[in-house]
Amino acid sequence: MILNEISVRDGLVTSGQPTATQLEEIRARGYTTIIDLSTPDSRNVLAAEADIAGRLGLTYIRIPVIWEAPRLEQFEQFARLLQVLEHERVWVHCALNMRASCFMFLYRLLILQEDENTAFNLVTAVWQPNNCWTRFMHEVVRKYRGIEEPPVRFTLARRLLGVRF
Asked: How far apart are the first and last CA of the chain?
C-alpha cells in the first residue's frame, strides 16, 4: 500500500508520494497517468519521478501547489485535466495526500456534483484541513457556487479552527 492511498473509484486514486518501486506497482495496476501536486522541494519528493514515470510509459503531469498558497487556477487546471482524462486510469498524489485529497474533494463536489459528506470523507480519512486549506476550499466553493456561506462541514471547521472567511 502506498502512503495514505485512497481509492476514489475504479481508475482514480489519491495518495502520498510513491517511491520508484511503487511507481512500477502503479503501472502494473494499469494506471496510465500520474498527476503530482507537490513542489520540487516538498517533503519526501522523488526528484527523478518524471524520468521514472516516462521510462515506465506513464504520462506525468506536475501542478506544483505551494503548501501555504494553493491557488484557484491550480484547482481549475486540475479539474480540466481530470475531465480530459476521465476514461484513463489516473493516480493523483502529493507528499502526504493532503493537497491531493483537498483537490479531489473539490473536484467531486463541484464538478461531479457528488454529496458533500461523501466527498469530504476522502479528506478526513487523511487529515483535518488547517486554516489555509479550509479557507482555500471555501474560496473555491464560493467561486463555483456563488455563495457566501460555506457548506456545513466547512462551518464546523471554521468553528473548530477559528477560521475567519
From this structure: 37
The per-residue pLDDT for range 66-98, each reduced to its tens digit, is 999 999 999 999 999 999 999 999 999 999 999
What is the residue range of 153's domain? 6-161
Amino acid at 73: E
- The sheet with strand 33-36 has its strands ordered as 6-9, 12-15, 90-93, 33-36, 59-62
pLDDT tens for each residue of 90-102: 999 999 999 999 9
CATH of the domain at 131: 3.90.190.10
In a domain, 1, yes or no: no
Contact present, 1 and 82 (Cβ < 8 Å): no
Q: Does 107 map to a domain?
A: yes
